[in-house]
Amino acid sequence: MGDGTACVTGKRWMLYGAYGYTGKLVIEEALPRGHRPVLAGRDAGKLRELAGKHGLEWRALGLDDAGALDSALADIDLVYHVAGPFTQTAAPMREACLRTRTHYIDVTGEIPVTRDTFAAHARALEAGVVLLPSSGVNTVPTDSVSSFVHRQLPDAHWLEVAIDTVHQRSSGSLVSMLEVASVSGQVRRSGLVIEEPIGERLRRIRFPFGKRHAIGLPLADIHTAWATTGIPDITAYVVQDFATTRLMKLTAPLMSRVFANPALRRRAQEEIRRRVAGPDAQARGSDSTWSWALARNARGQQCEAWLETLEGYTFTAAVAPHIVEAVFTQQPRGATTAVAAFGTDFVLRLRQTRFLTLPGR
């Protein structure tokens, strides 16, 4: 294999958070394509063991020493940041990348992080680098299908998106979710982000395999779909069963108050880290991700489509080396999205991935 080697010849990229659940999956996807990422994170012991297993270079570094971080990035062209919770880790790494003129990519779904990364667009242009936030399953599939329907209906002013993915979460994902548990619901209207209560929007969405219940949540799509399509009115949903959507709506105010308390949030996160493991290879291989988008214009015309792709963690890992290769070959600049930078059909480079449309509604 190894058909990514030519794209990265002479370039060096760092995988920060390499020994985490997602980091290990990224390594498994990157090595067969000829990549040799520099493995990085805080724990020297875990890095030494992981790097020895794969014959890779490693660097132990924290995020609280800006000088040391800058030195560690001096010979690095791109950082792929997969260490959460991103509300704690993304800003120092992003800032270091801007200072050292290093491309920055993360896989967060945490909406404050995605918002802040897009806010650094002008600085990224000045530094001559690209910032690609939320470049995993959290938004790349929904951005792709959003771009697909927008391509069919270029004058669309209204967009709804939904995702059905990751039915068994890793500890890192759950820890990151708690970091934003106190964030209110959000939609985009006339280009502006509007807050609303969690569960304000509940609906049933048609998928090729049947209708599913969904709940509107503060998802990074509010920023990424806007950057990808420019459609001014955007609502984002997550597919859940009927009981879960209603429970989330009822308990959201309480959860917001409870997890706004840092001590309680940290205690819950520590317990999750001790008890929760992500899905094994068999579970990932038997699952898939479905994304949906519905666009509408002022004349009432609409376009609806779906994207079927890999299970969520597998998708996030599989798309990583393709994004690295695309950054090095196409050289985008500024804060953007993978789909805006590389095109609607970029996602079709992945195995088991396809767009679908159905007649009627």
Blueprint (SSEs and pairs):
Layout: H1 5-8, E1 13-16, H2 21-30, E2 38-41, H3 44-54, E3 58-60, H4 66-72, E4 78-81, H5 86-100, E5 103-106, H6 111-118, H7 121-127, E6 130-132, H8 140-152, E7 158-164, H9 171-179, E8 185-189, E9 192-196, E10 202-207, E11 210-216, H10 221-229, E12 233-239, H11 242-259, H12 262-275, H13 281-286, E13 288-296, E14 302-310, H14 312-330, E15 334-335, H15 338-342, E16 354-356
Parallel strand pairs: 1-2, 1-4, 2-3, 4-5, 5-6, 6-15, 7-12
Antiparallel strand pairs: 7-13, 8-9, 10-11, 11-12, 13-14, 14-16
Helix pairs in contact: 2-14, 5-6, 6-10, 8-10, 9-12
Write a brief structural summary.
With 361 residues, the protein is α/β, with parallel strands linked by helices.
Textual characterization of the structure:
The protein is α/β, with parallel strands linked by helices. The chain has two domains: 5-136 and 313-345, Rossmann fold (3-Layer(aba) Sandwich); 140-312 and 350-356, Dihydrodipicolinate Reductase, domain 2, CATH 3.30.360.10. It has 15 helices and 16 strands. The chain has a seven-stranded parallel sheet, with helices on both faces. The chain has a seven-stranded mixed sheet with strand order 10-11-12-7-13-14-16. The chain has a two-stranded antiparallel sheet with strand order 8-9. Helix 9 packs antiparallel against helix 12 (262-275). It is globular, with a radius of gyration of 20 Å.
